[in-house]
Amino acid sequence: MHRADRHPSRRAFLDVTGATVAAGLTAGCSWDSAQPDRPAPAAAATPTPVPATGRHQAGVTLPQSAQRNLLAVVADLGTAVAPGPLLAELGEAIRTLTAGSDPRLLGLSPGDLTVTVGVGPRLVRTAGASLPGAADLPRFSRERIASQARGGDLLIQICASDALLVPVAAAALLDQAGDRIRERWRQSGRRGTNVSVAKGLTAPRNLLGFIDGIVGPNTTAEQGRDLWLAGPPAVAGGTLAVLRRMELDLTRFAALSVAEQEAVFGRRRASGIPLSGGTVASGPELGAKTPDGRYLVPVDAHVRRANPTVVGVGLMLRRSYSTDEPAPGLLFISFQNDLRTFTATLTRMDTSDALLPFTTTTASATFLILPGFDQQHPLGSRLFG
Predict the structure, then answer these.
(1) Which residue, among 119, 120, 193, 112, has the nearest Cα to 158 in the 3D structure?
(2) Is the CB of residue 378 less than 8 Å from the CB of residue 263?
(3) Cα→Cα distances 360→248, 328, 329, Å
(4) pLDDT reported for residue 198
(5) Is the separation of the CB atoms in 221 and 209 below 8 Å?
(6) Is residue 374's pLDDT more than 60?
(7) Which of 1, 202, 281, 336 is deepest in the core (most CB within 10 A)?
(8) CB-based burial label for 347 (10 Å; 0-12, 13-18, 19+)
(9) Looking at residue 34, what DSSP letter applies?
(10) What percent of the chain has pLDDT over 70?
């Protein structure tokens, strides 16, 4: 994909520089002298490093609280490119980047940098048509997706607490891949401030002001049941990812009263508690009614329409990021070990979900997130040899 470079004009540069200098003078700052009467700001705590190798790739459940910054790059492989060697090279580059030994980090500390790699249905089918991840996503309503933004062969998901690390790591990995891949689309995103939803569990707010991603497979048992693939051996330890980039109609949603907004979601905006009561982490009581017979959680509320028990599917792990380009919206990412968990949920939402009219999907793809790797077992080697 070719992206036009946008350089600021000289006047814009001078305007920004002048404003910065003026702000410094107004605040009484000196460019050439220290201010011993003012203590230096405390250095931010260094994020805990996340190992790149292991049974599962990092960037799904590790770290437990997802980093605030993300870049997802979706690309295609050239028709003559063998995926095995390319993936092995990417895995080695990921290992050196996260270890801090790759000179392409330009001296930056890797911190909690994670890189997660997935392969699309076309590549999975070359290894086995019946393998998990071989099926394409169906089309749904409220989509406005250009052909370039649907599907793809390769996902590179880069996350870090330090926003500077994300584009630097991306440049290194794309340099490693070279002309063997062709970029389809990319999306940057940020997560809002985390809110405690249960002991040891947090979730961020989204652009609509609501806590996002409260329900999910959080325990080891739930993750074994609903998140990680158990077989066949070529994919065991991996998972299936769905990416959906959505524009949000913030203006129209903001025009609703708080009560109307809460009816859309089925939760209190301030606390995240279901309209049926309980705690943030407790499931909504979908049968609870008012004395005059109305459901406390409206029939078209999002928490009712997407409820996994009602849909009859497992839990999905959602890692959503707010976006502002190309438009204000959301990059929705879900991980699950059965694609039906997502497709059946969205099919039910399509029939009647109060949240959907405020969304328009502009990019969509699904990927098999490869099992974990190490130096003896390169990334992708179980699937592609």
Answers:
(1) 112
(2) no
(3) 7, 11, 9
(4) 87
(5) no
(6) yes
(7) 336
(8) middle
(9) -
(10) 89
Is residue 194 classed exposed, middle or buried when 0-12, 13-18 and 19+ CB atoms within 10 A define those classes? Answer: middle
> Helices (H), strands (E): how many in the chain?
11, 11
Output the average pLDDT for the chain.
91
Nearest partner of 71 among 198, 186, 216, judged by Cα: 186
Nearest in space to 321 (alpha carbons), one of 202, 151, 188:
188
Residue 31, both tokens: 């460019």
Instruction: State both tokens at 300.
Output: 């078209």
- For residue 213, the SS3 value is coil
Q: Quick one: pLDDT at residue 25?
A: 37
The helix or strand, by DSSP H or E, that contains position 160, with its residue range, turns out to be strand 154-160
What tens digit of pLDDT does each residue of 27-44 get? 433 334 344 455 555 556
**pTM to 2 decimal places:** 0.88
Q: CA–CA separation, 313 vs 225, rounded Å?
A: 11
Which residues have a Cβ under 8 Å from the Cβ of 190 and sit 6 or more positions away? 68, 69, 70, 321, 322, 323
Token output for 29:
């700052």
Considering only CA atoms, which of 269, 273, 264, 271 is closest in space to residue 301? Answer: 264
DSSP string, 286-310: TT-B-TTS-BSS-TT-HHHHT-HHH
How far apart are alpha carbons 315 and 216 in whole angstroms? 5
pLDDT band at 13 (very low <50, low <70, confident <90, very high): very low
14: tokens are 């001078």
Residue whose token pair is 């080695």: 92
Tell me the residue ranges of DSSP E strands in 199-257: 201-204, 239-248
What integer pLDDT is reported at residue 10 of this predicted model?
Answer: 39
pLDDT tens-digit readout, 288-344:
999 999 999 999 999 999 999 999 999 999 999 999 999 999 999 999 999 999 999
Please return the burial class of 28, using the count of CB atoms within 10 Å of its CB with bins 0-12, 13-18 and 19+.
exposed
| Three-state secondary structure call for residue 43 | coil
